[in-house]
Design a protein that fits this description.
By secondary structure, the chain is α+β, with helices and mostly antiparallel strands. The chain has 13 helices and 23 strands. Helix 6 packs parallel to helix 7.
Amino acid sequence: MSKYQIFGGKKLNGTLEIDACKNSILPIIAGSVLCKGVVKLNNCPLYSDVIKMCDILKTLGSVIDYYQNTKTLILDNTNLEYQFISNELTKDIRASIFTLGPMLARFKKAKISYPGGCQIGQRGISTHINSFEQLGVEVLQQHGYMYCKCKNINQKEIYLDIPSVGATENLMMFMCSSFGKFKIKNAAKEPEIVDLQNFLNKMGAKISGAGTDTITIIGVEKFSEVEYTPLADRIITGTMLIAGAITGGNITLKNCNPNHVGTLIDILKKSGCKISKTKNSIHLICNKKLKSFGKIETLPYPGFATDLQSQITTLACICSGVSLIKENIFECRFRYVPELIKMGAKIKVNGNIAIVEGKDELFGAEVYAPDLRGGVALVLAGLIAKGYTTVNEIKYIERGYYKLEEQLSKLGADIQKID
C-alpha cells in the first residue's frame, strides 16, 4: 500500500497554482449525463474520486478521454444507455449518489447501490430520497440499492430538512430537465452549488438563486455541448494556507478565490499570520510563534468548513495557549486525533468538541490516515514534526488531493510517496 514519508522541519516557500475543486468536478461530471453530446472540462486533475466517477459514466456508455498535459477531461455522452450502478462502482465513492438526479432526468428511472466514501459520520441519503419522493418520484429501497422511477412530478417546491449540498445539487440536476418551474428552499449555499448552476446554465439550463437559500429552476428540454472550467478548490486552498502557517512559511497561492476561505483567513490572522490577497491569489507570511485562535466551530458555508477542521486542529497543536474546536456537521470527524497524539499532540475530545493545548513541537511517528481530511491533517503534522513521519493509507488522501507530494515538494517540503 502506498504511503508518504516526510522529514519535518522545512519551511514552505514559493508559489503554487490551485487545482479545480473535486467537490465541483464530481457533480459536474454527473450533470454531464443530461447532455446528449460532448462535455469538455478544463483544469481537471485526476483525483481518485474523479476516476471512479468516470468509471460509473463508462458503465452507462460514456466515451471518455483525458489529456494529462492540460488536465482536460472530455466526456462524450451521445449514446448513453440505462444501466444498474452496482455496489462495485459505488462502494468507495459517496459522490456516486449524484448520478441519481441526472439518470432520472435522462432515463426516467435509476437503480443505484448505496454510496460509500469516508466514514466520518452517518452521512445518510435520506434528504435526497425524501426530496425526490416529495416531487413524486417512486423510490424502492431494498437489498443495498435504491430503484427510482419518475411518475407524476406534481410537487414544484421542496423545502430541505437540512441544507444538504448533495441533495441540493441532485435536485438541481433533476429539476432543470423536468417540465415546469421549481423552487428549492433551505438550499445549501456553498460555492460548489454556484459552480454547478453556472455549468448547467452554460449547457442551456435556466437556474437562478444559487448561493442563496432559495434556488429557482425552469425546466428545459435540451442541453447543448459545452466547455467549462470548474472553480478552484477552496479546501486545497485552505489546506495549503495552513501548511504555510504551520511551517512558518512564505507562500503565494494562485488561481484561487480568497472569498471562499474568508473565515479561515480571519482565523490565521488572529493567530499571527500576515495575509494579503488579490482577486485570485493569496500571499501568506508566518515568521513568528503562532498563538491560539480561541474557539471555532464548523458550520455550513459561509461558516468555517468541516473539511478544514482536522487541518486547523493540527495547527492548534503548535499554537501557544488552548484552542477549542467544535464539530457541528459530522459526528466522527475526530478519528485522526489518536494519530496526532502518537506524535505528541495534547488533545482531549469530548463528544463533538476537541480541546487542544499547544506545544512547542511534535515528533515523527508512523500513523494511519482514517479518512480524506484526517489524513491530510497527519501530513501537515509531519511537515513540522522532528524526524521522520510515515503516513499510511494515503488512498483516502488521494481522493481529494492530486499528487500532494509533488505540490508540497514545490514549496520545499521533504516528502515522498512510496509505493
